[in-house]
Amino acid sequence: MLLCAWPSLAQQRIESRIDRLVRAEMRKEKIPGVSLAIIRNGRVDILKSYGLANVEHQVPVKPETVFQSGSIGKQFTAAAVMILVEEGKISLDDKITKFFPDAPATWSNITVRHLLTQTSGMGDYPPEVDLRREYTEDEYFEYFKKAPLSFAPGEKWDYSNAGYATLGFLVRKVSGKYYGEFLQERIFQPLGMSTARVISEADIVPNRAAGYRLVQGVLKNQEWVSPSTNSTADGSLYFTILDLAKWDAALYTDKPLKQTSLAQIWAPVKLNDGKRKGYGFGWHTEIIHNRRVVFHGGAWQGFKSFILRFPDDKLTITFFANSWDTKDFKFARQLAAIFYPQFALPQVQSIDGRTIEDREPKSTAFIRRVLLQLARGTATPDQFTPELKAEMFPHRAKQIGETLGSLSLPVAVIHLGELIERRDENGLRVYGFLLTDIGKTLSCTVRLTKEEKVAGLELSEVAK
Questions:
Q1: Which helix (H) or strand (E) holds 168?
Q2: Is the four-CA dihedral 165, 170, 173, 174 of positive or negative sign?
Q3: Are the C-beta atoms of residues 298 and 71 closer than 8 Å to each other?
Q4: pLDDT, tens digit (0-9, with 9 covering 90-100), for 60-117
Q5: Segment 28-58, tens digit of pLDDT
Q6: What is the largest CA-CA distance in the chain?
Q7: 191 DSSP 8-state letter
Q8: Burial code of 367-405, b = ≥16 C-beta within 10 A, e = fewer?
């Protein structure tokens, strides 16, 4: 891997803009540390470290700092499956009952492709799963099998951590090896990703960062989960920014995956009704401002991560942050705008921002839950006032749901929506949110009664 020996004047200006942006976001969101790389044609062009990897011990971030992956780990699970596809051991259209004959009858039409593209209907971990308890793979799988599908396979798109955990079980079933061991042998070691591995709290991991979250504006350590929770294939990996740079370089080659396989990975999924969703195998895939973009974010245990690739321009932006409160989609978009001004946030979202403190977390959590249910098509009329209920159902609720569903990651409304307004009006509480995606920003205004019923809901795209 080659680093730029002496930055040009243009590059110095870019680095200065990156520094200002990152430091402003860190100050605003109280992010302890950030590790960032700009990669051109598989070579690191800009490598930056900011702040602290560990606040208690005042350890600074450096390029060798190890962060948790969150869901950017899904692309590695997808790569493991595609290696097995290339070897003829799996077909994308194999029914998963071929490998798991004891699966419930409702799974009979779920294919490997459905799991990869988040269209299986499996959803997230069932609520019965306690993330602080130890489980075997078989015990996890039993919980998954008992949970009802949210929709028929291929009918809709909905983010599914359980689906990707199941892909990890599939890798073991077919290869005879735990998915983390398979990744080490087939991807990490061959590419020289020397610090990439499955999460372990027990092992001594040099340069490991600590994860943080904000509780009423005060920095706290990440919440604890069981070791088995941090061992599944839905995003339980350790990386440094240098590991991701080596991975990015490999994506221009035929090792560990052929370019024909990567083309399938980055193709949008086609649903049963013929509509397409901009998600492939562990990657979002879109055309935004006439540029092909593939990307994914990660959020887990006090960490955020992002990888944003412009394949035709051979430019990649990737970062880690050790705070759950990092607005990763917004952060990535602002970095992209340094290179492509069309990606700039609308004026309503300056670097300093207009976010206000959320003093009513129960009410805003209710609003986010309603928005997510609208996006999934599962909102119920009893959450709305009688007057709005008559206006919303069924047609307007469906329209709003489709607009929310057009976001790269509709589930992100739960934790990415920024509160920018709170006022009282005619006996109602008014909340204004901004929902930021890589290619657009939505404005959402919600009016609540004192009984926590939605009395008004407006949603629109914010013009530049």
A1: helix 161-175
A2: negative
A3: yes
A4: 999 999 999 999 999 999 999 999 999 999 999 999 999 999 999 999 999 999 999 9
A5: 999 999 999 999 999 999 999 999 999 999 9
A6: 66
A7: H
A8: bbebbbbbbbbebeeebbbeebbeebeeeebeebbebbb
